[in-house]
Write a structure and sequence with these properties.
single chain; 308 residues; eight-stranded mixed beta barrel; alpha+beta
């Protein structure tokens, strides 16, 4: 979810673009990383955006109002390969995990479960879809190669100031890092569940810090156990206070845990996100054997017009 240089359209331009785009787009709404429409992170999905230009896609994303909307701009159903672009209400973004999962489930419901290949601005993303024992579709995306580096003091200090946090409130066993799994996220580990739960930050200040360093979210975590974490992801650079579930950040976090030697080579780590927002979300991450990629698994379900 790395912001591009797309500009925020004026209201008049937006209205015209939406009017033109609505005639050419069937806008679906799914929530990812949950089996209940009241949980997870909602995403817009346009399965056929071949006739839409960037301005129209940006306008639709702004109208939908979710943190991201995904657009399939080209594809071959027989080959199960598609070109996928993502837009927040403010700008195009390079990669979005929850919108990828939502799009994958929407496709699997139409063309059947199986492996999907997406060409995204961040690179090739493979997603395996399958139907679980309850008949719901589950998707597992394999990220681009991940990486993680220790955060610089200036990066951490500026972020803590915007959050209103102190270094003494961090978990010393989980040092701050800048982690990449399609785009960059600052990882900060809270020393307690209470610190993570009390999130009341300076929106503009944090957005400025994130733009300065090129981060998509700040991935705030608390370690409940070795294989279970709780997470929150402020996303002010996308015009959103917080994401209820962030697949791209989960992939980056998997790379972070691998760098620290805390991610089992063959084992699953659970991430619980969105509870403090009233939209509980469940993400599972595991390492791809012998590689630097991370697999992120979750369900997605359609949001009806009445629910939306």
């Amino acid at each position: 979810m790395t912001s591009s240089a797309a500009e925020t359209p004026t209201p008049a331009t937006t209205a015209a673009a939406v009017a033109d785009a609505d005639a050419d787009a069937d806008i679906l709404r799914y929530t990812a990383f949950a089996s209940d429409p009241d949980g997870g992170n909602p995403a817009g999905v346009v399965l056929d955006a071949t006739r839409l230009d960037e301005q129209q896609m940006l306008a639709i994303a702004a109208e939908v109002g979710y943190s991201e909307t995904a657009f399939i701009t080209a594809g071959d159903e027989q080959q199960r390969r598609f070109t996928l672009r993502y837009f927040s209400p403010l700008a195009e973004v390079a990669f979005c995990g929850h919108a990828t999962v939502a799009t994958s489930v929407a496709l699997a419901e139409r063309i059947g479960p199986g492996t999907l290949l997406f060409d995204t601005p961040a690179g090739e993303i493979t997603v395996a879809t399958e139907t679980d024992g309850q008949g719901a579709v589950r998707a597992t995306l394999t990220s681009v190669p991940t990486r993680s580096r220790p955060a610089q003091d200036a990066e951490v200090d500026a972020t803590l100031s915007a959050l209103g946090w102190n270094r003494s409130e961090l978990d010393a066993a989980l040092p701050p890092h800048v982690a990449f799994g399609g785009n960059e996220h600052l990882v900060l580990a809270a020393g307690s569940s209470a610190r993570l739960a009390d999130l009341d930050y300076d929106f503009e200040a944090l957005a400025g810090v994130m733009r300065q360093y090129g981060w998509t979210t700040v991935h705030l975590v608390w370690r409940e156990s070795a294989d279970r974490f709780h997470a929150r992801d402020p996303f002010p650079v996308g015009g959103v206070v917080e994401d209820p579930a962030t697949g791209a950040a989960a992939a980056a976090f998997g790379g972070y845990l691998r760098t620290l030697g805390l991610l089992p080579a063959a084992g699953v780590v659970a991430i619980r996100q969105g509870e403090d927002m009233g939209r509980p979300s469940d993400l599972l991450i595991e390492a791809e054997p012998g590689g630097a990629r991370i697999r992120v698994t979750g369900h997605a379900v359609r949001i009806t017009d009445r629910q939306g």
